Amino acid sequence: MNDEIHDDPVLRYRYRFSREGDVLHVEIWADPGGGVTIEHYHPTIEERFRVLEGQVTFRADGDTRVAGPGDEVVVPPGVRHTFRNTGTDVAHLTTEAEPALELQEFLERAAALGRAGAYTRHGIPKGFGALLEAAEFADRYRDTVVFTANTFPPPALQPILLGPLARLQRRRAERSAA
After folding, report:
1. Which of 2, 105, 136, 162 has its CA 20 to 30 A from that of 147?
2. Model confidence, pTM
3. SS3 130
4. Bridge partners (DSSP) listed for residue 7
5. Torsions phi, psi of 32, nearest 5?
6. How far apart are CA 81 and CA 132, in angstroms?
7. Where in the chain is the domain with CATH 2.60.120.10?
8. What is the architecture, at CATH level 2, of domain 6-101?
């Protein structure tokens, strides 16, 4: 396991990664109230969560399940989901994501955007520059993660709106690098 711990201050959790073939292992520590609270799905990734310590509430396809130490939750590809530490102490859990695709890169970049103050706790970009950066981010990883119902733009409009905004952001980044 890689010892580097990544901190996402907006979603209030920390994690580290290891890889075994096409399986990404993620060890997670979520503060009370923290977790992946923005509804999303993975088009082709299955996630298998196991709670080691604490109480974690999972929502998957509209169903809610409270899990404690030793409990496992499997989220198949295409299923909308979130998870939140609903206990009073730090929750410790692991997940296996298969196939891994670019999930590690996605999570690392999401945490970096959070540390940079680019978006709110609910995933709303703070300002036009952050909106463009979020559009480029969502467009880049659209085969790995799709944001759903409680997000803007809605999933049906994401392919139409994110592409042009992502291209604009890429052009801005190229100009500032030159």
Report:
1. 2
2. 0.82
3. helix
4. 14
5. -55, 130
6. 25
7. 6-101
8. Sandwich (2.60)
